[in-house]
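Quick question, first post here. What does this chain look like in 3D?
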Amino acid sequence: MSVSSSTRELDARSRAGRKNEVALVPMTIGACLGLAAGSFCGGSLQSIYPYVAGRLATSSDHALWTLTYFLIHWALGIALMPWFARKLGFKRLFLASMVMLAIGAGMGILSHSLMTMLVARGVQGISSGLLVPLVQTLLLRHFPKRHHTLATALWSNSMLVPFFFGPAFGGWLAVNYDWIDLFWLVIPFALLAFVLIRVSLPEDRPTAPPPPFDLVGLALLWLGLIALQIVLNQGEQFGWFGSPFIQRYTVAAILLLGCFIIWELTSEAPLLELRFVSNRNFGFGLLLLCLGWSIFVGWSSILPLWTEVDLGYNGWWGGVLLIPLALTAIPVASAMGRIARHVSLRMLAALCFLLFAIAFAMAVYNPEIGLAATVPSELLQGIAVGMLFVPLTMIILSEIPADDLAAASTTSNFIRLASDIVGVTMLQTLWQRHTESVAALTRSAMSESLVRQALAHARQDGMSHAQTMAMIAGRLQLDASTWSLDDALRLSAWICLGAAAVSLVVLKKPRPQGG
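> Answer (accepted):
Ran it through. Tokens below.
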């Protein structure tokens, strides 16, 4: 080969390298923007359920279903991503996810009933779920190894920042304009991410065909989760297991999910690799991760609801209540990769749950004091949230062979997100039922002389009998709701204290060569 041809070849390689390096910037922006748009879809409604209920002509409790149905399909999207990536390639799958996200947002804009909104949230959830592992894979594949820490930080913050700050923005938009504009905002960002990836990412169509798609497993899983969601969402309304309606759906959920587990354990190409759950660190580590994440998501959904429905604050303040979590969670999560190199993973997991327990125990929710009293416990809880993922994820994957890490990660992420629907619904149900019990006990303990005295004072102030009774009933409901909230906080503190002990006693020390 001549010197001139060698020089031309080197120049061509150099130009190609510079081209790929330049393409890395729009690819990163597009991938992170798409993931942020999906996360924003999930978190932006958390502080405005009363506003959602008003548009859909339903109750605030039913409006909470827009979160749980999103979470179900978010988890399904994560489970579907590996097969579709092998079928379509990463680029085409990302583009398809952006189109789905825009379509889901458009369906939400046109929805005027709870049922159509739940369908829209399902479409948004699947597309957002596909993006979680997809964007992580894209960043790690195209960033140099020396910058993988940066890639992981970009991925995690693209997912967390909209989740934390989305509720405040959604509340501000609901108060000043219309909350449905949240979906209008998603569409241009999804299209911009589509264009950036379309022009910056090279084609990567798979050369080998994927394994057979586990359609039976998907059908069993989806139907089982929907049946479970109906039981959790409507159990309180129908009187739980005293209702034939709830009994039928409970049996259906148990049978469908049971058949799914059996099918996955015996299938040659399963949708989820459930066999990893029998591993001690994987099983118990995943249980702890599900517990911590579901309690956090449950409280981040209930507190804005209490702030708006019981205290009378608008959606903006309901969303602002979650911002202190972000102020500590995001920097702590960014630093955990370096901290975990020097501190025992089991100690970090135990400390995480201990901080959760302290935050719940010290929380002060008092209508007389105001929302400022919640900030110290929110800041401490944010530190715990930032510490949650890294140590437990490393423990979960510590004994998984390298070839199975992708499948194990997909399985653990699916189970973690699916556990959210149980945590959110059970915490809300506990709060509602305890509120009713406390209100009934307080009403029975009120003496007639106290009521007559209150009526006399109200007449002196010019209030009618009906106005006075409404004021007493409202104050009674507010006190009962706040007391039951405090009791649920203390119960959460004890649960997290037990989880801290399990982290130290049950989990094994990860092997140095683990995942």
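Confidence is low (pLDDT under 50) at residues 1-22.
Residues 1-206 form a domain with the Growth Hormone; Chain: A; fold (CATH 1.20.1250.20).
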